[in-house]
Amino acid sequence: MRSAAKAVTIRDIALASGVGVTTVSRALNNSPGIAPETRARVLAEATRLNYQPNMYAKSLRAADARTVAVVVKGPSNPFFQLLYDDLEQLLRGNDCTVSLFRASHDADEFAQAREICSRYQPAAVLFLGGGVAGKAAPSLPVPSVVATAPAWPTNDTVSVRIDDRRAVADVVDHLVAMGHEHIALLSTDENPGTVGGIRRSAFVERMAHYGLHVPSQHIVTAPLKHRPYSFDYGYQLGKACTEQAASCTAVVGSSDVLALGAMRALHDQGISCPDDIAITGFDGLDVARCTIPTLTTIDQPVQAIAASCVSNLTGLIAGRKVPKETTLRGSLRLGESTAKPPRVRR
Predict the structure, then answer these.
(1) Where is the HTH lacI-type domain (predicted)?
(2) Same domain for 204 and 260?
């Protein structure tokens, strides 16, 4: 993956040399029609500033008009790795060239995309993840699609994602039907514009539907010592769960990696799943089928998400109108990690 790190540009050289950008470009490319002393001054400033010609940018500009920049927000999330594989295959099948960039969990992925557009001039941008709702961001100069998260309301970006609220409701319905009333949520983010924030509010709303109050301590968070949506952070949340939500008989993970990390932390503290506590995840990762116990989770329709993203993106590149929001349905996949609470079994 490539990071759009700040680098010396020909604009910097132009400013230092006191000439225009076109003159700098001609000097660096040894083009005719430039005075020798001007060329020497430009080259001297380029050397002083440690300018490195960006061969990757040149290759992108020389490529066909169907280069797609994929910006992954939270590249440690294994779900995005799974989704990217399908996206790349479909994009290449549509004669698109794919270039992958990463944005850290605390980065402004839209600002990074603007820089990518300026430096590399892709035909379109595809975002994987991010917290976009509520950001007052202007439109990019190229078509853009965001996968698994809401679209920016202030620009032309379109979104493809599952109905997170319905999926969370399915999980809560399943646990309540088993007899659970004290249920905790492993949460990563309070921001209502992020996927984590949407799942958090959906959890509280669905619990209220059954007349079940969610105390603040049952929204389990922890200082972010690890990357969010990682096994390490899930383990950290699992340890916090025994302190914040000791009375709970079930735990809902905002993702599979959080649920699996928490499951291990609880196991290390002598707490058995599902005998002592039921645990659910979200995403439908293959690894959730291989754990003991297997994880009850929400299957995200990866192939359908990828197909809708590529269909919308290629449509936008071709100038066609596409829906602002495409919402798909996740499905509850039952595993061995959920059972009736101990008081009901007795």
Answers:
(1) 8-62
(2) yes
